[in-house]
Amino acid sequence: MYFVCLCGKKSYFCPATKPNVNKISFFFLFLALVLIPGGYSAYAQETITSLPGKPFENSHFLKIDSATFHYRIYNEGIKNQKGKVLLVHGFCGSTFCWRNNINALVNAGYMVVAIDLPGFGYSDRNLSVNQSNSGRAHLIWSLLAKIDQGNKRKWNIVGHSMGGGAVEAMALMNPDRVQTITLVDGMVFIRNQNMKGAFITMSKMKGTNQILVSLANQDIISYNSMKRLMKQVYGRPLDSAEMKGYIDPLRINGSAASVINIYANAHEIRHLHADGLLDLPALVIWGKKDRTIYLRNARKLKRNVPTIDLKIIPDAHHAPMETHPQQFNELLLDFLNAHNP
């Protein structure tokens, strides 16, 4: 999910749709550029500091092209492995998002890899990373090749929200490496296209980009703003432990610039179409009350790819794996076990 606050007007939108930036937004951004050109320099010139040495006991770091990934492995080296599962979080998330699901997968005998996407969690904040779906997919497959070390067993790939678009692209780009795909309230697409619109154009302009980074600091990744945003995502207020899990990685310098980089540096490297999922076992899990990425997006994908198994959790909002873990884990494990004999 994405959140933008311009000129005090707040709105939630998914980058699968074209953002709407009105004339008033342009007017105030113009004034900011002309009248207060140095007003946002503190944010524009923020230093990207080094990341923690080892945030978790099972943390690993690996550089792939221009991106240094942080990832965590569970059941590494397990004998009689049931299968391999990749977990990819959504916007402003991290490996923390899967805390209620990993034990269920581990106990079922799966080796699990949870990654932090470039720019989020404890991965680095390199702004040269291509943040398109196919760009992320290319990097993730390269990471998994390093982790596999020649192991040819296929992956069960799972992606939430923004991560859903990445794993969909992964499946379409390398179907021979995919055992199953699961999309959770995902940023799904029929065709992957470069994002267009006024906001995208502004994010690519140096001066305006600096202002947007400042706004991201104030109105997206600040504690109070994240608290409001995550209330919509969860459908309820977060407790202190949940807020800490989300906000701690976002306090790493460079996080705001990484948020804007999602728009400023996202060019698709492969043209993809969802009908490539027809020959893959695919599960889509969605919260019926999701107001971040609406259920109609899942139904549209289902119409285009009728082989998809669509499961709806009635009381869930945008993060069912966190708020309704028992139902989510049952659905996911039933699907995985059926396709990992």
Please describe the structure with a list of short key phrases separated by commas or semicolons.
10 strands; 39% helix; 341 residues; two-stranded antiparallel ribbon; 8-stranded mixed β-sheet; Rossmann fold; 13 helices; alpha/beta; globular; disordered N terminus
Question: How does this model look, in words?
Answer:
With 341 residues, the chain is an alpha/beta fold. It folds into 2 domains: 2-6 and 24-47 and 195-264, no CATH class; 59-194 and 270-339, 3-Layer(aba) Sandwich (Rossmann fold), CATH 3.40.50.1820. It is 39% helix and 18% strand. Strands 3-4-6-5-7-8-9-10 form an 8-stranded mixed beta sheet, sandwiched between helices. It has a two-stranded antiparallel ribbon with strand order 1-2. β1 and β2 form a beta hairpin. α6 packs across α10 (255-264). It is globular and about 55 Å long. It starts with a strand and ends with a helix. The model is unreliable at 1-49 (pLDDT under 50).
CATH architecture of the largest domain: 3-Layer(aba) Sandwich
Mean pLDDT figure: 86
Query: Biggest β-sheet, characterized?
Result: 8 strands, mixed
- For the record, what CATH class of the largest domain applies? Alpha Beta
Summarize this structure briefly:
39% of the residues lie in helices and 18% in strands.
Describe the secondary-structure layout.
Elements lengths: L1 E5 L2 E5 L9 H13 L5 H4 L14 E6 L2 E8 L8 E6 L13 H6 L2 E7 L16 H16 L6 E6 L1 H12 L4 E7 L13 H7 L1 H14 L3 H12 L5 H11 L4 H10 L17 E6 L7 H10 L4 E5 L6 H4 L1 H15 L2
Parallel strand pairs: 5-6, 5-7, 7-8, 8-9, 9-10
Antiparallel strand pairs: 1-2, 3-4, 4-6
Helix pairs in contact: 4-5, 6-10, 7-10
